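During the no-cost extension, the postdoctoral fellow (Dr. R.K.) reprocessed legacy sequence entries with the updated structure-token encoder. One reprocessed record is reproduced below for audit purposes.
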Amino acid sequence: VIRPEPCCVCGSRIRFGKTAIKCCQCQLLLHTKCREQCPSLCTPRPHHHAWPREGVLADFAPSTPPLVPTLVVQCVTEVETRGLTETGLYRVPGAEQLVREWKRKLLRAGGALPALGSVADIHVVCGVLKDFLRGLKEPLVTFSLHLAFLRAADIPDDAARDTALRHVVSKLPPANRDTLAFLMLHLLKVSHSPDCKMDVLNLSRVFGPTLVGHSSANPTPLAIMEDTPRQCKVVACLLSLPPSFWRGFVETEQENLVPM
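Re-encoded structure tokens follow.
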């Protein structure tokens, strides 16, 4: 190391003259001692230098599966590294100006993202992730499958509802499906942390409007009012699916594999 930089795993500085490990794909930098704690999911740098300011999720995804945007991976990794003891994770807002500033910085950087260890308030990192997902041209579940998700979540029988939800998830575009799976696994970790005090109900209220949204870009006031409780229900039902279902999407090299 010539120029001291923070370790992407523990957050403390790697000092001048010390040996460090750097990933040649995603540029993650870490202490040699932190290698075992290194996040396993690595997304290669895209060929372009910057991401668009807005777009559908596939515009930000890498070219090889799992198709999870680097920004989502780094925000989630940072939150899981030092945020799982924070009360109100994702519910407590981060400073709005810092959220906008970091989102702009990350989008401008494209795949070679600056380390988020220098962001003192973890709620800002949470805010960046939520703002990125909210800023997409269409929600993660897509406009075309919006109604299918709502109908699946309304099925009263648990087994039939789970089967219907698995089927609708499998119809998502690959980038949306992989990213949804990655986020569900993350939110399950948050819900299981007693310090966060964010159970499935709390998380579904926060992420319902963001992940499920509406069936069009310009919903009517009536649609907004009717959709809100159903959005939360969809996310709560998705979080009730077993982690093994979601892991099947992000841990496989076969892009179109639909786990049973």
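The first helix runs from residue 70 to 82. The chain has two domains: 1-47, 57-250. The remaining legacy entries will be reprocessed before the final report is submitted.
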